[in-house]
Amino acid sequence: MAFPEPKPRGPELPQKRVKTLDCGQGAVRAVRFNVDGNYCLTCGSDKTLKLWNPLRGTLLRTYSGHGYEVLDAAGSFDNSSLCSGGGDKAVVLWDVASGQVVRKFRGHAGKVNTVQFNEEATVILSGSIDSSIRCWDCRSRRPEPVQTLDEARDGISSVKVSDHEVLAGSVDGRVRRYDLRMGQLFSDYVGSPITCTCFSQDGQCTLVSSLDSTLRLLDKDTGELLGEYSGHKNQEYKLDCCLSERDTHVVSCSEDGKVYFWDLVEGALALALPVGPGVVQSLAYHPTEPCLLTALGGSVQCWREEAFEAEGGTS
Prior knowledge:
Blueprint: E1 16-22, E2 28-33, E3 40-44, E4 48-53, E5 58-64, E6 70-75, E7 81-86, E8 90-95, E9 101-106, E10 112-117, E11 123-128, E12 133-137, E13 147-149, E14 156-161, E15 165-170, E16 174-179, E17 184-189, E18 194-199, E19 205-210, E20 214-219, E21 225-230, E22 241-243, E23 249-252, E24 258-263, E25 269-274, E26 280-285, E27 291-296, E28 299-304
Antiparallel strand pairs: 1-28, 2-3, 3-4, 4-5, 6-7, 7-8, 8-9, 10-11, 11-12, 12-13, 14-15, 15-16, 16-17, 18-19, 19-20, 20-21, 22-23, 23-24, 24-25, 26-27, 27-28
């Protein structure tokens, strides 16, 4: 006799804390996975950037060179380079292996909130409270940016990059999408200052969080509002949001010490994960697994699904 096929398992949410990293770098302003999710970066208010193996809890390297707190960082596709931006208005390109500063790009008139590499890691895009996005050529010795995108009317809070698009969120309440293939700019007005934007994994939608304590899912091409998600608190801080690794859930930091998960399609709150007292300032979702990193105060927490068994036990 034929056995029935097992039902496909529903998505599992990372709700079991398997590791806490005491980062020792003041307040952790941002936590970011590298491209394959094996390592993470933490940005500190003590001017340092640190590279970790989050599941093991081991510190691999400390990068020193910023003149003020580090606010965002990103790794290149081949794990050879890092970029970071901070309160010193500088954008820094780092060599991962040596820990050395390769280039320091200056030109922003205010602190740099967000940095991203393009797909080939030949260009760094940086967004600043000076209302501009600047594109820096990693291979050139030229000190000035190769391009400046200055359509925003207030500070840039979030920049994300796909193979042919730049997605930017601004405090002016608009999400702007630059289509580099078509040479076109698309703009959607949300109204409230935007704190974070991101693409869905399938590239069809954009997720936008703003200071009215609401996340909105927009159709990327039409700007149509597909879903709204609320229940968390985001009224004064720049907080991260993202989609889970299979686009099943919307995930957001909150100012009440929790991370919130909503069912993407139904819009219902699926989980409010208590992280600790204070503001959960940053989060990062693993690219392929139900694994979440959260930053609260001076530490980073690593979360996995309930069934997960860590090597050598948990701490």
